[in-house]
Amino acid sequence: MIKELKEWGKSIGIAIILALIVRAFFMESFIVDGRSMEPTFYNQERVLVNKFIYNFREPGFGDIIVFPYPVEEERILIKRVVGTENDQVEIKNGTLIINGQKVDENYILQGYSGQNFGPVKVPEGSVFVLGDNRNNSIDSRNNEVGFIPVDEVRGKTFFRYWPISNINYFTINTLEG
Is residue 121 flagged as an active site residue? Predict the structure, then answer.
């Protein structure tokens, strides 16, 4: 009986250590907070984020990333990358324009409410992010957020696991660019 308990204790200890290593270096769970990514993600949904991928490449056009809110570091934001370094980003008459090309945004909740923005050039080592619910999103258009330094990005969303009815695996960028 004692030997069996020791084996169980070892197994549980190893499992905890492995879980901590996975969370620290490979993936982490986040809760979507708010409506800014509707209809892609809804408030209180749970997602897994790949923390390892950006050791091999920079965030790309269409990646859905998580990063700390610059004015409230403990708050994590989830947004879509629409501009990478040296891209020119503009919103004109409700249309997103990247490097002079209109972007078909079939994933957004609704069109822009007549806002114009930019053009701005994304600095080196940074990305420009927008929420999919453009009329209800604090994102790179806001001075508090601005351009997101790549080294501040926590990871790329790759799996929604809650609610169970909305389980979804994100295999590639969801934007055509």
Answer: no
